[in-house]
Every structure is written in C-alpha cells, then in structure tokens.
Specification:
CATH architecture of the largest domain: 3-Layer(aba) Sandwich
Radius of gyration: 35 Å
Strand content: 15-25%
CATH class of the largest domain: Alpha Beta
C-alpha cells in the first residue's frame, strides 16, 4: 500500500503543486485548506506524513503538532512558511516538527523530505510495535521482572513486580539500592553479581518481607543484559513466587523428614542415617545407584545438613557436555582462551566457593578431565582455561554415578587413584525394587505435589492402580514413579486415578490379572501397616488404599500381625 501524505495550505495553487510532485513520486496524497478539513482527513484515514503551512488564514498551522501529539500519531510533520523566523522555527521544533522549510519549496527538497519522513515513520512504528509486544509479554508473565542499567537505576518493571514489592512507577529512574531492600538486600546482591561477573546469578528461596502483606518465599534470577552487538546494557532480575511450593514442601518435610527424601523402609532409613553422619564430616562422598534412585536428592541432603548449608549448592551433569566445554564449565576461562571466549567467565568450582559442588555422572568423564579433577581433590586448587594462576577450591565435592567404577578401573577406563579419592565414603541409593514398602508413601507424596501443580485437590488412587504400582519392577526407579503419577494427572479427568490413567507398561501389567494382593502383600510389614492405620485413624478402607492392598487382605494382615484393638 502506498504511503498517504496530507498537504495543508490555504493557497490552492500550492496544494495542487505539492500534490502533483508527490503523486508523480508514487505517494497517495490528500489536501486540506484549513485545520478543520485536515482533522476530517485524519479522522477518516491513516495519515503517514503531513506537510503544513504555518499561516492558514486565521488559523495557525503549528496547532497541528498539538493535535498529532494528543492523538499519539507517529506521522512526521513538516512545517513551511513564506516568512521564516528563528523564533518560529525553534517553537516548531520544540513542539515536535520533523523539519522546518521556507518558501518556495523546490520539488527535489519536497521529495527528499517525504522520503526521509516516511522512512522515519516506519522506524518509529516498528519500535512502537516492539514496545507493545514487550509490554504485552511483561504484563502476561506472572514472575516479577525488573530491568536496571549498569548504574543500577531501574529502567523497567512489570505489573507482577509491582504487586510483589508494593512499588509504583515513581521508582523508575531511581537506584535499586533505594527501592528493594525488603529481602535483606538479596535482590540488590543478585543484580550486582550479574553485572560484575557478566554471568547469571541465582538466589534460591529468599524471604521477601512487607509491612502490608504476609512474607513470601521467592527465587531470584539475575541475568546480564546485552544488545545484539555485545554492548552491556545492565541486568534483568526475575522473581518467582515459590511460597505455595515452600509451604507444601515444609508440610511434606514435617511428615517425611530428611529434606524431602520420602520413605520409611529400613533401606531408606539406613541411607538417611548415613547421610546425617557424613554431613558433619568434610570429606568427599561418592553416591552410587541406578538412574532415578534419588542421588541428587541425597547430595542436597548432605549439603543442607552440613555446616556449608548457607553456601551455594552447585550441580553439574558431567555427561551433558563435551570435554572442552566441561573444562570451561567447571573451571571457567579467561578472555581469548579459545574461539568464542569473548570475555572472562567464572566456572562452577568458583561459583561453589564456600558451599558444595555436586558432580553427577562422574563415571562418564574423559581421561584428561579425570586428571584435572584429581588435582582439585589432591591440592584443593584449579586453574581457569587459558590461565596459569591457580585458584583455591574452598568447597566440598560430592560425586555420583550409575556406573560400576570398579569395573571401569579394571578395564582401564577410569583412573584408580581418582576412584579411591572419590570413594572415601560411598553411599549406595537402593533401587525402588528394594524398597517397595515405600511405594505408597512416595505415590501419595507425588499425588499431593501434582494436585497442587494441576489444581486438582482431592485426587486419590484406586486400589487396582495401587496394586499395579506395587507389582511393577520400576526400572526407572523413583523418577519413573513420579513420571507415572504426573502422566496420570495429565490424562485423567476424574478425582480418582485408575489403571486406565497409568502409562502403557503399567496398564499392560495389570491386564488379565486377578485382583489379588500377591506383590503388594509381600512388601507390607507390621510396622508399615501399623503406621498406615494410625495415619488413617484406624479407618481400614483408607489404610488399605494407602498401602495398596484390598480390605479383605488388611483384615487378614491385622490378625496376622496381632494389631487388633479392643474395639475390634
């Protein structure tokens, strides 16, 4: 579509001349002899540019600038006059004129200004569209967002952040140090760290205090902000409200203990006892076990039970990165160390200073990386890639693997000296097959978790579904059980999870089987059943569902274990 230009002048001959020049150049043109006629055109059509004389009979052409401003139009306005005056020109520019010309206006001057004005409007419109999109995104995000410049002055925030902090737009342009101190300065610390290091900073579970609202638990993530050319613009701080999740986790912790490690079997109790003992000892720990058994959760328990609990807990999946990238990720690098290293970067070891680093999948690292880690364990120091100056490693190392490291040592695939350095105190996580008595507790833990996530409170599990969970071999262990319950929440529309809601392999297992309790029965002992009955106030139907057996079987088990009460 051709750009539309409006020409305003009370001289008909000039209107005709301007229209002819512009039409021949490929523009659509409308003309007006007065401001009233011009307003009628503006009301009816989308005007891309305006040329106007200052003198329009008894009217002042400069008034069109006020109209354009009030209506927030983006069309450039060019003022021309037969009596040029410095004060008038200055006033026109102050009011927002795109340019100021004196008569007579030559054709090439007119067309040059038209071309510049239309290009200018296109750029302005694109910026406005971008601004509208950004505002829409900001307003739709539930997390609080603040953007600051390198001097820590607030340049933008969204509605969610205004609600988070009870702040108003008069804080825009003010330093962050004056505005957000209700979180013990953690917002400021996160932003300062991101600006100083040029890498993202994350503060988990910070308490945000307000006089006019209950405390909130938030996770803060600050990221450096750069434009397409790499120029540093400041930082963006994102606040995620995790109050509901923190409350739920606290309630679950009260019920299950040990930092969210759910279970009451002898196997998991032995693990928890060992973790509590090791937490107070500054030694390297190697966590062993199949995939999905909760090795990361065990590492977190070690950290949060230890004297380093107030320091960072940094996780690294050693199998997720190739060797060169893993070295940079762990140890950091200096500018120019390799192609693409455009600035210095601190590594995970440096980030974990004062806390704990968790090296998952340690059995998959290369021989060269094994040697580098051996030095860290022996000498408690490391070097950034491209730098020879050693840095001290004030941290605790916890490693984990699902591989048999002894077999890898025999095969020459893993250094024996590194293995013994890592294997000072091994912790073996039992498979879910070995702790089937915990399946009911884990299942109801995940049901509560996903009931909150999917807003499906009151969701329960049918007896046949629990029997299927108890009979299944669980090659993926606790992680697979969690995914199975999440799958059930996604597909079911009822308040009860049945066999039909479970993943295909569990449905297949249950197909054609009698509704007996053979597998579930084998995993129930007197202590587990007694706790279930007490938890359900001796409602036998509820207790049976909790442990995954039928009501017929629970009566038999109560008698077998001698758990009858006087009322029975």
């Amino acid at each position: 579509m051709k750009p539309l230009i409006l020409v305003i002048d009370d001289e008909e001959s000039l209107r005709y001349t301007f229209k002819k020049f512009l039409t021949n150049a490929g523009y659509d043109v409308e003309v007006a002899a007065s401001l009233d006629e011009a307003l009628a055109q503006i009301d009816k059509k989308h005007i891309d540019m305006i040329f106007t004389d200052i003198v329009l009979g008894w009217q002042n052409g400069l008034d069109i600038l006020g109209i354009v401003g009030e209506r927030r139009l983006t069309c450039p306005v060019v003022i021309f006059t037969g009596a040029p005056d410095l004060n008038t020109a200055a006033e026109a520019v102050r009011l927002g004129a795109f340019d100021y010309l004196s008569k007579p206006v030559l054709e090439n001057t007119l067309l040059r200004l038209a071309d510049r004005g239309i290009k200018h409007k296109k750029i302005v419109d694109e910026k406005e569209l971008f601004r509208i999109h950004i505002e829409a995104i900001f307003s739709s995000v539930k997390d609080g967002i603040i953007a600051v410049d390198p001097a820590l002055k607030i340049i933008a925030m969204n509605d969610a952040n205004r609600k988070f902090c009870g702040c108003t737009d008069n804080m825009l342009g003010r330093p962050l140090t004056e505005s957000f101190m209700r979180c013990q300065g953690r917002c400021l610390a996160a932003v300062q760290q991101a600006i100083e290091t040029k890498v993202p900073a994350e503060f988990l579970r910070v308490e945000c205090m307000r006089d006019d609202a209950p405390p909130r638990i938030v996770t803060l993530t600050a990221s450096p902000l750069e434009d397409g050319s790499g120029s540093f613009l400041g930082a963006v701080l994102v606040k995620r409200d995790e109050t509901r999740l923190a409350v739920l986790e606290r309630r679950l912790a009260e019920q299950t203990g040990a930092h969210g490690m759910v279970g009451d079997s002898n196997e998991i109790r032995e693990v928890l006892s060992l973790l509590e003992s090791l937490a107070q000892v500054e030694t390297t720990v190697l966590i062993l076990g199949e995939s999905g058994t909760g090795k990361e959760l065990a590492a977190q328990a070690l950290h949060f039970l230890s004297p380093r609990k107030n320091g960072p807990f940094v996780k690294v999946n050693c199998a997720a990165l190739p060797d060169d990238l893993l070295a940079s990720e762990l140890f950091g690098h200096v500018k120019g160390a390799f192609t693409g290293a455009i600035s210095d970067r601190i590594g995970r070891f440096q980030q974990a200073s004062g806390g704990t680093i968790f090296l998952d999948e340690i059995g998959d690292i290369s021989a060269r990386m094994q040697l580098s880690l051996l030095r860290v364990l022996q000498e408690k120091e490391f070097e950034r890639v491209g730098e020879s100056q050693p840095l001290k490693a004030d941290l605790r190392i916890i490693a984990a693997t699902n591989r048999d490291l002894r077999e890898k040592v025999k095969a020459g695939e893993f250094r024996e000296d590194l293995f013994y350095r890592l294997n000072v105190i091994p912790v073996r996580m039992p498979s879910l097959r070995e702790r089937k008595a915990d399946i009911p507790l884990l299942t109801h833990h995940f049901i509560r978790e996903f009931a909150l996530k999917f807003d499906k409170s009151g969701t329960d599990l049918s007896d046949d579904a629990m029997r299927a969970l108890m009979e299944y071999a669980w090659p993926g262990n606790v992680r697979e059980l969690r995914h199975a319950i999440e799958h059930a929440f996604v597909v079911t529309r009822d308040s009860t999870i049945t066999i039909s809601s479970l993943p295909g392999e569990l449905r297949l297992l249950a197909t054609g089987k009698e509704a007996d309790d053979a597998s579930a029965d084998s995993g129930i002992n007197a202590a587990t059943l007694s706790r279930a009955l007490e938890q359900c106030s001796w409602n036998k139907a509820k207790a049976a569902r909790l442990v995954g057996i039928s009501r017929r079987t629970i009566y038999r088990k109560i008698k077998e274990f001698g758990l009858e009460t006087d009322s029975d």
